[in-house]
Structures are given as C-alpha cells and as structure tokens.
Design a protein that fits this description.
About 35% of the residues lie in helices and about 25% in strands. With about 90 residues, the protein is of the alpha/beta class. The chain has a 4-stranded parallel sheet. It is globular and about 30 Å long.
Length: about 90
C-alpha cells in the first residue's frame, strides 16, 4: 500500500500534533519523499477518518492499537528518529 496521507496525532489538540506535523514534513523532505499530504489532529478525531499512516507518540500507543498502520515515535521532536522510522514505513 502506498502512503499518500499521514496524520500526526496528539491527545488533547493543544499543539503537539501541529509540531509533529511540521517535523514529519521536514523529515519527509530530508529523506526525499514527496507528494504526501500530512495533517494533524487529536487521536479521537483521527480515528473517524481514513489515513494511510497514523503518527503517534509512545504515550498514545495503547489508544491507537485499533488503527492500522501506526508509527509510534518515542520523541516527536527528534527529526532523526522520524527520518529512520519514516524510511522504514516507506520501505526506503
């Protein structure tokens, strides 16, 4: 399955997901991936939509376990970790 849309999720919608979105976009650019739509949302709102990849912090891993294609990140601000895990998700 090709990854065409990603959502970065946080628990409360207080800004973490927006920061994660910006970092995911930067990481995608760094690894040469283009043409992917990146959005941000609370996890509860994202669960009602269809995304190819859900990016969540490790503290939301349990709440996201019912979703398909979840990328669990230890530190959403760590660009190198995002690059590594996104490479794996895209099969690079």
């Amino acid at each position: 399955m090709a990854i065409r849309n990603i959502v970065c999720c946080c628990g409360m919608g207080m800004g973490t997901s927006l920061l994660a979105k910006m970092n995911v976009e930067k990481a995608l650019g760094n690894i040469g991936v283009k043409g992917v739509d990146v959005e941000h949302s609370t996890l509860s709102e994202a669960k009602g939509s269809k995304y190819d990849l859900y990016v969540v912090s490790k503290d939301l891993a349990e709440a996201a376990k019912t979703l398909s294609s979840v990328l669990i990140i230890d530190n959403l601000m760590d660009i190198k970790e995002l690059e590594k895990k996104l490479k794996e998700a895209f099969g690079l």
